[in-house]
Amino acid sequence: MFKYILQLIIGIFILAVSTFIAWYEGSAIIDNSLEWKYSTPFTDLFNIDITNGRDISQLDYFVYSAKFQPLFPTIMMVCVLYILSVIGYYLIKRNTNWAIGFWVLTGCICILLSGLIFNSPTIGGRIFFGMTFISGILSMAITVIVVKKFQALTDC
C-alpha cells in the first residue's frame, strides 16, 4: 500500500509544479491580443467580452500554453495519466469489476477528448490529440486484457 501512496504523492507533486509553470507560461496570452479570439474557449463559454487581457479566464491560460508551449501541459497530462494508471493498477489487484469500469471510463474520456482536438493546426494540439487518443486505446486494451484474465480465472 505504501508504494502506491508514494507514487501518488510524487505524481501529484509533479502535476502541481507543472500546472503552475504551464499557468505562468499561458499568462502570455494577456499581451497577445491576436490570439484572444482563437485561444479563449472558457472566456467565451462564460460569455465574457474581452476588452483587455485581464478579462481572460485563468483556464484559458492553459489552452494558450498547450497550443504554443506544450512541454509543461504535456507533463501535466502524463502525470494525470500516471496517477490514473496507479489507481487503475491498484483497483485491478483489489476488485476486478471496479477496474474494468475504471479503465472503460478512462478510455472513453480520453477518446472523447481526442475527438475534441482532432484537427488542431498547432503543434500542441497535435501532441495532445496523439496522447489522448493513444491513452484511450491503451485503456481499452487494458480493459480487454483484464476481462480476458477475469474470464480465464472464473472458467477454471
3D structure, described in words:
- By secondary structure, the chain is mainly α.
- It has one domain (about 1-155).
- It is built from six helices and no strands.
- It has helices at about 1-25, 40-45, 60-70, 70-95, 95-115, 125-155.
- The protein is elongated, with a radius of gyration of 19 Å.
- It starts with a helix and ends with a helix.
- The model has no long low-confidence stretch (mean pLDDT about 90).
Q: Could you say how many structural domains there are in total?
A: 1
Q: In terms of structural class, how would the helical and strand content be classed? A: mainly alpha
What are the segments in which pLDDT stays under 50 over at least 5 consecutive residues? none
Instruction: Please give the radius of gyration in angstroms.
Output: 19 Å
Please give the number of β-strands. Answer: 0
Q: Mean pLDDT, as a whole number?
A: 90
Strand content: under 5%
Element-level helix/strand string: HHHHHH
- Report the end-to-end length measured between terminal Cα atoms: 29 Å
> In which range does the helix fraction lie?
over 70%
What shape does the CA trace take? elongated
The total count of helices amounts to 6
Q: What characterizes the major β-sheet?
A: none
Transmembrane segments: 5-24, 71-92, 99-121, 127-147
Pfam family, one: DUF4306
Keywords: Membrane, Transmembrane, Transmembrane helix
Protein name: DUF4306 domain-containing protein
